[in-house]
Design a protein that fits this description.
homodimer, mainly alpha, Arc Repressor Mutant, subunit A, Four Helix Bundle (Hemerythrin (Met), subunit A), 2 domains, 10 helices, globular, disordered C terminus, DNA-binding, GntR_C (chains A, B), Tscrpt_reg_HTH_GntR (chains A, B), DNA-binding transcription factor activity (chains A, B), transcription (chains A, B)
DNA sequence: AACACCGCGATTGTACACAATGGAGGGTGG
DNA sequence: CCACCCTCCATTGTGTACAATCGCGGTGTT
């Protein structure tokens, strides 16, 4: 029952979630990755004590990681009732996408102006990694790397507040994609990423923005935001009932 | 040395910082207000233990409040070295203002579409409060209320991610204004706020956006971002070097 | 005299113990 | 038989003790 991975002293575990920093980051990254990989379904309760045993740290660390995840919108923190994996409603998803269009447009324009050759090279490398992940069939890693691409682009824009906001938006987008994306189609075609890099490298702002907006369109269109899919999305369909509101009769049986 | 205000059990102290919620919020609001009122100069060290004694709570609460302030960019959290009041550089200030232009434009457009009559009434009330504060000479409250106006506008836009981002931007803007604004000119003329509300109520999107952009221009122009002012801005000029200065008495009274 | 190294003090980082809250289940009354 | 209430338990919220870390000042050497 109480299997606990080794107290995660050093060991980067470089293969998986991002590079090791402080313990918080490790816990944060692991939970985040688990959510993206859909090993943690939306609505799943995240008990502090259980997580603490799993990662071999105290609740203090877990609490910080959860707080951070909550701030990025990936986890919902209910006072006195613990944390659950967020399950964005269709309306929330729309809001995130609207905000992303806005931010991505600005980021693209700024990146065209400020991206260095080194950054462009890094971006190309990331697209390669992303393609590899998808060809390996590692969908979770693919979604994560695709998000990291957009985050890297934000860094190239050289605007700290936008980077921070983009991080939050990308996190939520990843969760939404994991939750709503239909079937197994690659959600963020790396072709579009490559074209985008080309336009940025050519300092063609107008083209870059157009590509980015089309890219956003494609992401939108691949999601089933208009009507709920039926079978295994029960969690998503009902989660808004059985975790937050509805003080009276909160879905008696679940 | 150990002067400590009463353990802040309930007592809303409604006059000052925002309405009382949980203890975190009280501590957060008080520190935030102290920073805006410039009773806490940029660069001032925020010792957890000292704050804990002042507010009569344990370091746990203080730590959460500081973490939140850090996330909003008002406080700088240096690992193993404690927290200090942030002192945005000119470059950082420019980035914040760029991001704000972006966000305010979008918020204005959305508010024109979605603001309800009730929200518009609330906005007008807030402008009244703001004017009262300035006429009373309460500059800190004025800056804070002006920020809350822009935040309320974001709420009228009905987009959760934008609201969250705007909260962070407004906080940082307030700090920048407190730090850089020249003299005693009212920084956010409520006339402009009133005109803006009128345009929104008339559902005139183009006019509203133009007013907002001019409003941003005015805020920009009132700051001394181009060249440092000499006398009392030494803190700002050097704070990035000597973050630990001013060890004595962090705000004699709160 | 200046530089470098080492130990000390202060402050933050972490873990844990206790208090408080909310939900679930059983029991009782209508 | 159903509904309501009351108690108990699981889980989170808070305070505190202890450990780790960093900066600073003393001391010795070159």
């Amino acid at each position: 029952m109480n299997e606990q991975l080794q107290p995660l002293k050093k060991q980067p575990r470089a293969g998986k979630a991002g590079r090791t920093g402080t313990q918080d980051d490790i816990v944060y990254a692991h939970i985040f990755e688990a959510i993206l990989e859909q090993r943690l379904a939306p609505g799943t309760k995240l008990s502090e004590e259980a997580l603490g045993e799993i990662f071999g740290v105290s609740r203090t660390i877990i609490r910080r990681a959860l707080s951070r995840l909550a701030h990025e919108g990936v986890v919902l923190l209910r006072p006195n009732r613990g944390a659950v994996v967020a399950s964005p409603s269709v309306e929330e998803a729309r809001q995130v996408f609207l905000a992303r269009r806005l931010v991505e447009r600005a980021i693209t324009e700024l990146a065209v102006q400020h991206a260095t050759a080194e950054e462009i090279a890094e971006l190309r490398q990331m697209v390669n990694d992303e393609r590899d992940s998808f060809s390996r069939g590692d969908r979770g890693a693919g979604i994560r790397l695709s998000g990291e691409f957009h985050l890297k682009l934000a860094e190239a824009a050289k605007n700290a507040p936008l980077i921070s906001f983009q991080r939050s938006l990308v996190s939520q987008t990843s969760l939404i994609i994991a939750q709503y994306e239909s079937g197994n189609r690659s959600h963020c075609s790396y072709d579009e990423h490559t074209q985008l890099i080309d336009a940025i490298e050519a300092r063609n702002g107008e083209l870059a923005v157009n590509l980015m907006m089309h890219h956003m369109d494609h992401i939108d269109s691949k999601l089933n935001l208009d009507e709920e899919s039926a079978s295994d999305d029960l969690h998503a369909v009902f989660s808004h009932l059985l975790q937050t509101k509805k003080p009276g009769r909160p879905a008696a049986k679940l």
